[in-house]
Specification:
Radius of gyration: 23 Å
Bound molecules: NADP nicotinamide-adenine-dinucleotide phosphate
Shape: globular
Largest sheet: 6 strands, mixed
Helix content: 25-40%
Oligomer: single chain
Number of helices: 15
Strand content: 15-25%
Strand order of the largest sheet: 3-2-1-4-19-18
Number of strands: 19
Structural class: alpha/beta
């Protein structure tokens, strides 16, 4: 029996879990894990909040996988940029797409293109040193910022903006972003939900953290968290308790207020040259109960960060569902020899453990249909030849370890690393003058 040649495109958690599943379920498999960036680990490096270092420990498991004799990491190799979709299908028996969802969803309201409006993918990428967004230079020069969305990403953004530099000690917040945030004259952060507290998708642990910030008081209108609803989920009940606690605790006179604004749907971003405010419309129970007289209101803010979800990026030749913003698939199957996992399969929902279960289920189905391959495929040898013809220098796992060492050596005291944030710097650290 010949070896099965498999390729995983994308080295975030769902990609690594797919590689792990392949090694466990397919005998004699060789796995190449590709990433368009010179660095591995996807959102573990570029998305998970810099002050949630515990969540990043999963990278150790991925590091071990990269040392498996049948696995190669090939960074700096972009699908649709350096290698085509059809080429990968020719080279490998199985192509697993783990492309993530890197494109910010749009609000679809007037003013969205003004300077000062940022999607969370770009904003989080900026403070996490993701090369695509390193030079975002967000306008954090006014006292107030609006964060649209009631999910955990909105909470991450609010917390990173609200924490003091001392509270970020021990994080890997990039220096360029830490300096801008520390210098921002922030007094008000508005976290805006278009629905009510019971419909928010924050998880209680993340929400609770916002009540323990050194320089920020949470502020909640008690009417938004009044009576529990029988249909509340367990998480919604806990969130309501936490928010009621915030409403009761009252301001402690801290310099920054973190306002929770519920039932407020964005209508427009206001401003001529840049963001000056956001226009919202009250909706839902408050309006129905006559608790608000006029259902439109403005907040004066200098920047808006939309944390409203993401879409996968279309790649030439790849079946794509433009309505859902995912790779077109049925239970992860795209076409014979191709499957898709993670956010590029399901859309942007779920945490790292959700993606593990999802990748394992997809690979189990795909492995069942590979059987004994009828034709030998050249696998990584063909990819290496093609990359060399195109003068693409892939970043190997050994190269990544050089980047890793360099970043750790550059870390200020008490911090895990100071990231290299530009592709050229990363490549220079990885491969030097070779
Ligand atoms: P999310 O939980 O789906 O939240 C998206 C939010 O955007 C929702 O509140 C949604 O409101 C709102 N929204 C969507 N379109 C909108 C519009 N046009 N106008 C106003 N609001 C709009 O997604 P996320 O926060 O991006 O997080 C993605 C996934 O990563 C989640 O599963 C999350 O739990 C996970 N994550 C976990 C952590 C952690 O564990 N610490 C950290 C970050 C992310 P509706 O509900 O009304 O649609």
């Amino acid at each position: 029996m010949k070896a099965i040649e498999a390729c995983v495109v994308g080295s975030g958690p769902s990609g690594f879990f797919a590689a792990d599943a392949l090694l466990r379920t397919v005998p004699d498999v060789r796995v190449d894990i590709l990433d368009r960036l010179p660095t591995p680990y996807g959102l573990v490096r570029g998305g998970v909040a810099p002050d949630h270092q515990g969540t990043k420990n999963i990278a150790r498991q991925f590091e071990r996988l990269c040392q498996h004799p049948s696995v190669r990491f090939l960074g700096n190799v972009g699908l649709g940029r350096d290698v085509g979709y059809d080429e990968l299908k020719d080279f490998y028996h199985l192509v697993v797409l783990a492309l993530g969802a890197p494109v910010d969803r749009k609000l679809g309201v007037p003013g969205e293109d003004l300077p000062g409006v940022y999607g969370s993918g770009a904003f989080v990428g900026w403070y996490n040193g993701q090369p695509d967004h390193r030079d975002l230079a967000p306008l954090l020069d006014r006292p107030a910022v609006a964060i649209v969305g009631n999910g955990n990403v909105a909470i991450d953004v609010a917390r990173v903006l609200a924490k003091t530099p001392e509270e970020m000690a021990g994080s890997d917040l990039c220096r360029h972003a830490g300096e801008v945030i520390a210098a921002a004259p922030l007094t008000d952060i508005y976290v805006i939900g278009r629905r009510g507290a019971a419909q928010a998708s924050f998880t209680p642990a993340e929400l609770g953290e916002l009540g323990r910030l050194r320089r920020a008081d949470p502020k909640v209108d008690p009417r938004d968290v009044a009576a529990p609803h029988p249909a509340d989920t367990a998480a919604a009940k806990k969130n309501r308790e936490i928010l009621r606690g915030f409403a009761q605790q009252g301001p402690a006179g801290k310099p920054l207020t973190l306002h929770f604004v519920f039932h407020a749907a964005p209508q427009a971003i206001l401003g001529r040259e840049r963001v000056e405010g956001i226009l919202l419309a009250h909706s839902g129970p408050k309006v129905e109960a006559g608790a608000v007289a006029d259902n439109a209101f403005e907040l004066a803010v200098g920047a808006v960060v939309t944390c409203i979800g993401y879409r996968a990026a279309a790649v030439p030749g790849l079946p794509f569902d433009p309505a859902r913003g995912v790779v077109r698939n049925v239970d992860g199957q795209v076409e014979p020899g191709v499957c898709v996992v993670g956010w590029s399969k399901r859309g942007p929902s779920g945490t790292i453990p959700t993606n593990r279960a999802d990748s394992f289920a997809v690979i189990e189905r795909a492995a069942g249909s590979i059987g004994e391959p009828l034709t030998a495929k050249p696998g990584g040898r063909a990819l290496d030849r093609l990359l060399s013809e195109r003068s693409v220098r892939a970043v190997t796992f050994g190269d990544w370890l050089r980047i890793d060492e360099r970043e750790k050596a550059a870390a200020p005291a008490g911090r895990p690393r100071e990231k290299l944030t530009r592709t050229a710097e990363l490549l220079a650290a990885a491969i030097g003058d070779q």
